[in-house]
Amino acid sequence: MRKKTLTFYLGCIICLSVSLSGCLSNSTSTTMQHPKTIKIGVMYPTSGDMEHAGKNQVKGIEFAAKLINEKYDLAIPLAKGEGLPNLGGAKIELIIVDSEGSPKEAVAKAEKLITEEKAAAIIGAYDSSNTAAASQTTERYGIPFLNAESTSHHLTERGYKWFFRTNADNELAAMGVFDFFTQLDEDHAVKSIAFLHDQSEVSQDFADAQNRLAEKSGREVVSDRLDSNQLNFGALKLKEADPDVITMTTLRSAIQFRQTANQQSYSPNAMIGMSSGLETSEETLGKEAEGLLVSAGWSKELLGKPLINKVNALYKAETGEELSGYTPHAITGMLVLADAINRAESIDSDKIRKALLATDYPADSLIMPWNGVRFDQDTQQNKSASNVLLQVKDGTEKLVWPFDIATEELVWPLIPAEGGS
């Protein structure tokens, strides 16, 4: 009887050992299984009217993927290793599609990236209207969408769960300009403002934001609307009102207004374009642009920062071009998205979303002039994004604000242009 009992217990022990061994083996196998590549959908207008800008954005995304997939001595998360370490070194695989600059095509391409390509997330799509259309599709499917350059404030006010934006929107750009006003000394105090904006969506974005900020700060608003066919009337009206500063939607429109103002012998105290609106160069920035300011998301003047200079050198070696325009935004957006996927340790949409919400990307690891990347928990807008102010001097744009990183001193008020007074 004792022999049978002993045999029974030995059998149980052997069975239990085999069972535990199998469980441990399966558990280890499960935790070690990671995809070799992580598919990221990349949507930009690589044909049509925005082809040049779209192709530049794609170059930036491809460069960022290279920084992640290969090893670089950079103080940027994921650059020092190869691939995503928390996913077994999985590499980023880009699935690039052309939105053709069409919202309808953006919807179709987003659907393709999700249903056919099985992209874990999508980044794009440059123009605000295309971004709005594509993100409607990702919202419906529950796929993370990261936008790196669209500026419409409306995009993060839709109550969407899956849409994230890293760059400053028009609201944050306007807030930056008002912060600049606050930091001016008493001799240059801005007490009255004229907003000259048309009926376009971006113009209304700026006008609405600036009206709110002016009211909050107690500044007088002299004018807040001007159509392109009213330039002569506007110049005469503002000459009489003489506001401390005039803001316009773009630097291009500010140049046009100044040309008209000169004909009326009127030289504004200061003018700010809330965005560029042109390919700025010594050829395109003539005498009428001299002294004008423009709010910008990035500037080559930032190349004095060691990390940005180093990344620029690598980018130039890879593409033959220097960083410019919105390309740094695209690079940053891709790095932030990859960092979130790595922290999620998964391609599960919910886990990626939670990781994005928990993002705390430090300023010293950025090639942008921001205080970091931290998404608002309700709107998913990067609340640490901001713009800089550039001033046209001798035909080129110089960084004049924030004052602590300025490369040139601010000239204020404007030196009258030829024909002004």
From TrEMBL:
A UniProt-annotated Pfam family: Peripla_BP_6
SUPFAM superfamilies, sorted: Periplasmic binding protein-like I
Keywords associated with the record: Signal
Domain Leucine-binding protein: 37-385
Cleavable signal peptide: 1-21
Family: Belongs to the leucine-binding protein family.
Protein name from the UniProt record: ABC transporter substrate-binding protein
Organism encoding this protein: Peribacillus psychrosaccharolyticus
